[in-house]
Write a structure and sequence with these properties.
Layout: H1 2-21, H2 32-38, E1 41-42, E2 50-51, E3 58-63, H3 75-79, E4 85-88, E5 96-99, E6 107-111, E7 114-115, E8 137-144, H4 148-151, E9 158-164, E10 174-184, E11 190-199, E12 203-214, E13 217-218, E14 225-226, E15 231-245, E16 248-260, E17 262-263, H5 265-270, E18 273-296, E19 299-319, E20 324-344, E21 349-370, E22 375-380, E23 387-401, E24 405-422, E25 426-430, E26 433-444, E27 449-460, H6 464-468, E28 471-473, E29 476-479, E30 487-500, E31 503-528, E32 531-556, E33 559-572, E34 577-578, E35 586-593, E36 598-607, H7 615-619, E37 631-642, E38 645-652, E39 672-680
Parallel strand pairs: 6-9, 29-32
Antiparallel strand pairs: 1-2, 3-8, 4-5, 6-7, 8-9, 10-11, 10-39, 11-12, 12-15, 13-14, 15-16, 16-18, 17-18, 18-19, 19-20, 20-21, 21-22, 21-23, 23-24, 24-25, 24-26, 26-27, 27-30, 28-29, 30-31, 31-32, 32-33, 33-34, 33-35, 35-36, 36-37, 37-38, 38-39
């Protein structure tokens, strides 16, 4: 991996000079596909529309219209195409994005502006973003860096937001639809998806359904089939919009995801479990959004959103040689309500003012059943049953677009009331609050390049998982701590963006100071059920710093070259050791050809060895002794489109190498073939 590190250094320091050298008069790029790729319109960074080039944030948009082309099996896998994002998989049914070294409850997940993250989201890799069906999604945006001002608690590392397919109005009645099927070698996937859409002057709607069977992952040359790791999934969604008046629309969405029999592979293989699986994993989301255009002076529009989300997670475990089958069941019901006003005085100033409210109710149960006698014993669940977490927030973000400068600033006040009613330890109420802000200065160096500096403060309130967990989690047994303070952060970054003559490039340098980190602390000399005993404490201060660079080049209308490189370094100041699960140096390069109706491409993925390990990494059986080895993987893809039909073929890991994303509980794909056929009308 020395070559990879040298490549990173050269890219980081040479690339800006290369861009500057190419900043000369010339014909601007006019190809529609390339313009779409270069000048994306995003909303994550500021909560209102902005051109990505002129946004003083590290933000990237992923268009999932090509979900078939790139064989994007899950939403987490789609994130692997994003610079600065490292996706770890605890199991086949998981996939957790690491953004600037942080994941889990330190990275916020959203769908259409509504929180997917809830009060039981845990620290470290998890499966929650995998409950978003990629076929129900039109776009994913990733904001790297704190988004606490815009979206509240948990957005210390970054924000990942999925957007459902847009529904627009048409002058005449218009019907559409499509069918997609996908199969993979070794039985690793069988997918069928279909959708139907309709629109006219006042009504638009889209509905879809997916049925998916994922087989065991087959790894590289020395791994083979990793069993058990397969699972089943079914999804359906419905979205409709009504034009109530020429200025007012109402959008309603319902989404349902169900995953069953999801094995936790490393638990079965490494920890002597006969059964260790999530069954079921369910998520339902419904919302109604009223959007009205006001144009009353500086008040331009208003948005009111009411939402309801319900997540259900069942876990079944049984050790080899044991007669006890443990079943845990958690249900979280989340009510949300928000109101937001967009303000502007024209081309110079735009902003928003808003208020939002979320309320979580957690139900958690556990039953131990003796399979020899069928006798069942009810016990305390993983979380205190009936716990609640309520939050209210006021926020505002403003942007000033001057001839040579862009200045963005915002603030948020968030207040929480958390009630934990433990059957053994009694009732506890916490009322944490936080005031955070951000400011960014962007200098427009030329029509093709911008330089910016941003400062962000962030926070994360302790949630029900932090406060009330009692039971086996990963390789430890956790006990509650009802006296935790919010985590906080201060992040500063410098960024450079370039866009001219078919070349788009960006470079970011950042440092994130972390305070009052909630971490698991071992209680020495104590064990429960053969597991070391841990509790959570606000005990640590740390920092994470790094560099990111990415580029896309379109020398011809049929040719695309792209690449990215990410370096992350984390240090725990309190313990004088590395921060846990820091991703290694990671690179991606790709070349794509699109002559006529044909498409072909080659992709290279590489990760350096990660041997900077915290003590928690050393104790983690998912990380090999001495660290995770470096790896290189090459993928090939191709496809053909004819009228309303398309066929896409991809060959993963053509040299059949064994590899594992650092911190994952399962190895990546060995040599495998994926075929997708789709028809749209």
């Amino acid at each position: 991996m020395n070559m990879l590190k040298a490549f990173f250094v050269m890219t980081l320091f040479i690339f800006p000079g290369f861009l500057a050298a190419t900043d000369k008069p010339g014909t601007q790029f006019h190809d529609s596909l390339k313009l779409h790729a270069i000048n994306e319109v995003v909303i994550t960074a500021r909560r209102f529309n902005s051109v990505i080039m002129n946004t003083p944030d590290a933000v990237r948009a992923i268009d999932l219209k090509s979900v078939g082309e790139y064989q994007l099996r899950t939403s987490p896998e789609a994130l692997a195409l994003t610079p600065g994002v490292f996706v770890q998989k605890t199991n086949h049914g998981g996939g957790s994005p690491f953004i600037r070294g942080l994941t889990g409850n330190q990275t916020l997940l959203l769908l259409d502006g509504i929180r997917i993250s809830n009060s039981t989201m845990r620290y470290g890799p998890n499966q929650y973003f995998n409950t978003i069906d990629p076929f129900s999604t039109g776009k994913i945006e990733v904001l790297r860096g704190s988004g606490s001002v815009q979206y509240g608690s948990d957005a210390i590392g970054g924000t990942v937001q999925a957007f459902s397919h847009e529904t627009g109005f048409t002058g005449e009645a218009d019907w559409g639809g499509g069918v997609l099927g996908r199969i993979a070698t070794h039985g690793m996937e069988q997918t069928l998806h279909s959708f139907l859409s309709f629109s006219n002057k006042t009504v638009s709607a889209r509905a879809g359904v997916s049925f998916r069977k994922f087989g065991d992952i087959v790894g590289g040359d020395t791994t083979g089939r990793q069993s058990p790791s397969g699972y089943d999934e079914s999804d359906h969604y419905f979205k409709t919009s009504f034009l109530l008046t020429p200025r007012t629309s109402l959008t309603v969405l319902y989404q349902n995801v169900k995953q069953t029999d999801i094995p936790v592979y490393h638990k079965v293989v490494l920890e002597n479990y006969m059964i260790n699986e999530t069954d079921p994993q369910k998520r339902k989301l419904a919302y109604a959004r009223l959007n009205t255009s006001l144009n009353a002076g500086i008040l331009k529009s208003g948005i009111i959103t009411a939402s309801y989300q319900q997540t259900r997670e069942g876990r079944s475990t049984r050790k080899n040689g044991s007669d006890i089958l443990r079943r845990e069941y958690d249900k979280v019901r989340t009510f949300g309500l928000s109101a937001e006003a967009l303000v502007s005085n024209g081309d110079i100033w735009s902003g928003n003012l808003g208020i939002e409210f979320y309320s979580d109710l957690v139900n958690s149960t556990r039953t131990d059943t003796d399979i020899t006698t069928s006798s069942a014993t009810a016990k305390r669940g993983l979380y205190p049953d009936g716990s609640t977490m309520n939050s209210v927030a006021l926020f505002t973000v403003h942007s000033f677009d001057l001839p040579r400068w862009n200045i963005t600033a915002g603030a948020r006040f968030n207040s929480f009331v958390i009630n934990v009613d433990d059957m053994e330890l009694g009732m506890t109420e916490l009322s944490p609050s936080a005031l955070v802000g951000n400011i960014a200065f962007m200098r427009k160096l030329s029509s093709a390049s911008n330089l910016f500096l941003s400062l962000n403060t962030g926070f994360r309130a302790p949630n029900i998982d932090d406060l009330g967990t009692l039971g086996i989690v990963d390789f430890r047994y956790e006990t509650p701590n009802f006296d935790l303070k919010p985590e906080s952060s201060f992040q500063y970054q410098v960024g450079y963006k370039y866009n001219r003559n078919g070349l788009k490039g960006e470079i970011y340098l950042y440092r994130n100071e972390l305070y009052n980190l909630i971490t698991r602390v071992r209680i020495e000399g104590q064990e429960i059920e053969g597991y070391q005993l841990y509790t959570k404490e606000n005990s640590e201060r740390a920092y994470i710093q790094g560099a990111e660079t990415a580029w896309d080049y379109f020398p011809k209308s049929w040719l695309t070259l792209s690449g990215s490189l990410t370096y992350t370094y984390g240090q725990n100041i309190t313990k004088n050791e590395p921060v846990r699960r820091i991703p290694p140096l990671f690179a991606r390069m790709a070349v794509e050809f699109r002559p006529g109706n044909w498409r072909s491409g080659i992709e290279w993925l590489a990760a350096a060895k990660q041997d900077r390990l915290a003590q928690g990494d050393i104790d983690d059986n998912r990380i090999p002794d001495g660290g995770t080895p470096g790896w290189n993987v090459i993928n090939l893809s191709g496809g053909y489109t004819w009228k309303f039909l398309a066929a896409d073929l991809s060959l993963r890991n053509i040299f059949n190498k064994d590899y594992r994303y650092h911190g994952s509980g399962i190895n990546g794909y060995g040599r495998s073939l994926f075929l997708t056929l789709q028809a749209n009308f």
